[in-house]
Specification:
alpha+beta, 6-stranded mixed β-sheet, 8 helices, 47% helix, 16% strand
């Protein structure tokens, strides 16, 4: 739960911090690899890895690559990924290894404006991306377990189209606030504001387009 997320961070005292879901798996050298990455690259505040997806029985079925934020990728380009909404595979960086003091400078994770968990990762990763770099090592060091009855999937069954729209607007608002209060220069802020607005508008237009096409198809089928 969100309270657990915040409580363990509040109690943490070490140099590095990681959130860990109880039923996920890690390679034996996972933390060691991430620590080495952060030790060798002080400009990064979070290091994650590719993610191996497994089912409830532990059987792998896909690997999610975070190659777009690999350590050798330009941070000026990679940072924009954390301000695109809807977000992308970079949200899996939430379970990476953080520099504790930098993470504690960010606003604590919260439910979105509709009281759902959806997109809870987006604001905290975005705020962290205004403090320092976020990268990934090109290897699946973590296995993420997917359950049919997970809280996320249960939420999906209860959300209406209005919920999805209002959640997206709430996240966009949070992203704009994060950019505004950051210490980035004016040009970087402008780039990120443009990224937020353009990505959301494109998504909204596509959603409306799909809805329109579905309505027209349904009408034509009814006329046949």
């Amino acid at each position: 739960s969100i309270k657990n997320f915040n409580r363990v961070l509040e109690l943490s005292t070490g140099k590095y911090f990681m959130w860990a879901a109880h039923d996920d798996l890690w390679e034996p050298d996972c933390i060691n690899e991430l620590v080495i990455c952060l030790e060798q690259n002080p400009e990064f505040v979070l290091c994650a890895s590719d993610v191996n997806f497994i089912d409830a029985n532990g059987h792998p079925f896909k690997i999610e690559s975070l190659h777009r934020i690999d350590i050798d990728i330009s941070w000026a380009r990679a940072r924009k990924l954390f301000f695109q909404y809807p977000t992308s595979e970079v949200l899996h960086a939430i379970y990476g290894l953080y520099r504790t003091e930098d993470l504690k400078r960010c606003e604590a994770p919260t439910l979105n404006g509709r009281g759902f968990l959806e997109s809870g990762e987006t604001p905290i990763l975005a705020e962290l991306a205004t403090i320092g770099g976020i990268c990934s090592v090109p290897r699946a060091l973590k296995s993420y377990r997917v359950h049919a009855d997970s809280n996320y999937r249960k939420e999906l069954k209860t959300k209406t189209k209005l919920d999805h729209l209002l959640i997206s607007l709430d996240v966009v608002r949070k992203l704009l606030v994060i950019v505004n209060r950051s210490k980035l220069n004016a040009y970087d802020k402008l780039v990120l504001v443009n990224t937020i607005i353009c990505s959301w508008v494109r998504s909204f237009v596509r959603a409306v387009g799909r809805r329109f096409i579905a309505t027209v198809k349904s009408w034509r089928d009814g006329q046949a």
